[in-house]
């Protein structure tokens, strides 16, 4: 019995008035927009304060995003160089060439989060609350971004004879070597995993310590996402570097250690409790004075 191969045959470019743009690029831009819109929506709805600072505002979101960008770009690039270290050791001049290679998602997420936290601190924004709000937008963007890769043939896994492999036909160009060979659609696997992590974070946010907006939900999202990446990387085409482990899997282990350290820091911090103002006792009513008189009065 022949394995069921899903053959994809379409033009990866949208062509309008002599101009062409890849469907994958459009879909990634849409994923970023959805992630930002979801974050802005949640920031507007969530009025809880996590650390006693001023409430987060949507104006902060713009500056925090601007702070995330350089960290994501630099961290993503450095991690990409690490993943493909042998190639760039042989071609060091290409390390800073933006047309050579790309960005690694793991590094982009971690370093982008760090620079975003730094900017939020400069703004005196409630960092824990912003992290928990960002967790939903982050997972939405990551999952939709992975699905966007299907439109360009990027992120294909190992060639396999298993059922439900995918192959890209037509001239392309496609974002993978040997696009016509049946391969595991690991980008879809990761997108499904991201969706499951999102559900977990939304459910966990209703229980126990995850109800407090102190960064726990973000750390949960980051940690479980790293586990998903670790599993999916098993079917990546990269060569192992330490036993059976690939570079991405070692990076994922590092992310898990960062998450555990972050949870320990959050746990060691005293819980912030909104101060409750004691109710003032009702003023005594002197004989002959009506109780219905306004408490504000006309006093200066």
Task: Strand order, main sheet: write it out.
Answer: 1-4
What is the rounded distance between the termini?
91 Å
Beta-strand proportion: 5-15%
Low-confidence stretches: 48-53, 272-280, 285-300
Task: Give me the strand/helix succession.
Answer: EEEHHHHHEHHH
Question: How would a crystallographer describe the biggest sheet?
Answer: 2 strands, parallel
Arithmetic mean of pLDDT: 85
**What is the overall number of helices?**
8
Helix content: 40-55%
Protein architecture, described:
The chain has one domain (25-268). The longest helix has 26 residues, at 58-83. The strands form two sheets. A two-stranded parallel ribbon has the order 1-4. Strands 2-3 form a two-stranded antiparallel ribbon. The protein has helices at residues 23-45, 58-83, 85-90, 105-122, 127-148, 186-204, 216-232, 247-268, and strands at 5-8, 13-16, 19-22, 165-168. It starts with a strand and ends in a 32-residue tail after the last helix. It is built from eight helices and four strands. It is globular and about 55 Å long. With 300 residues, the chain is mainly alpha-helical.
List the helices and strands and how they pair.
Blueprint: E1 5-8, E2 13-16, E3 19-22, H1 23-45, H2 58-83, H3 85-90, H4 105-122, H5 127-148, E4 165-168, H6 186-204, H7 216-232, H8 247-268
Parallel strand pairs: 1-4
Antiparallel strand pairs: 2-3
